[in-house]
Amino acid sequence: MKKLILAFALSFIGVLSFAQIEGKWKTIDDETGKAKSIVEIWKKSDGKYYGKISQLLIKPENANCVACKDDRKNKPLVGLEIIRGLSKDGNEFTGGTITDPKKGKTYKCTITRDGDKLNVRGYLGISLLGRDQTWLKAD
After folding, report:
1. Is the CATH code 2.40.40.20 the one for domain 2-137?
2. How many CB atoms lie within 10 A of CB 25?
3. pLDDT for 38-73, tens place per residue?
4. Ranges for the DUF2147 domain (predicted)?
5. Among 6, 12, 128, 131, which has the minimal tally of Cβ within 10 Å of its Cβ?
């Protein structure tokens, strides 16, 4: 009986962690296929999810977000909040935005988790008009 309860508890914890996106993720550039940065995602007290660049893996042209047009303009890339206001909706995280610091553009964002991968979609207007990236769980 104890083994059954333990197996159930471990399975339940596994299911809960599967649908979560909190933690550190290695971003993979969808154009070059190379690892670009580490983004840390966390949940704020408002119940929404946010993410910031915690480490750069490729040296950028400029260490600041010179292309950004909002409160992030000219802020350092390391520590820059690029994901804002995502809400969990079933197995999907949506309703927030993601900013591409290289282009300075902000897009609507949807994230789903598939094991140790995040499927990140940034889009304008409708989801059909956008880009996908796969982020990998960082150690």
Report:
1. no
2. 25
3. 999 999 999 999 999 999 999 999 999 999 999 999
4. 23-136
5. 128
Instruction: Map out the domains of the chain as residue ranges.
Output: 2-137
Any residues with CB less than 8 A from the CB of 130 and at least 6 apart, and which? 107, 108, 121, 122, 123, 124
Other C-beta atoms lying within 10 Å of the C-beta of residue 133:
18
Token representation of residue 6: 């333990």
Q: Are 73 and 65 in contact (CB under 8 A)?
A: yes
Output the pLDDT for position 85: 98
Q: What is the mean pLDDT of residues 6-16?
A: 41
* 89 within 8 A of 105, measured Cβ to Cβ: no
> Nearest to residue 32, comparing CAs of 102, 117, 97?
102
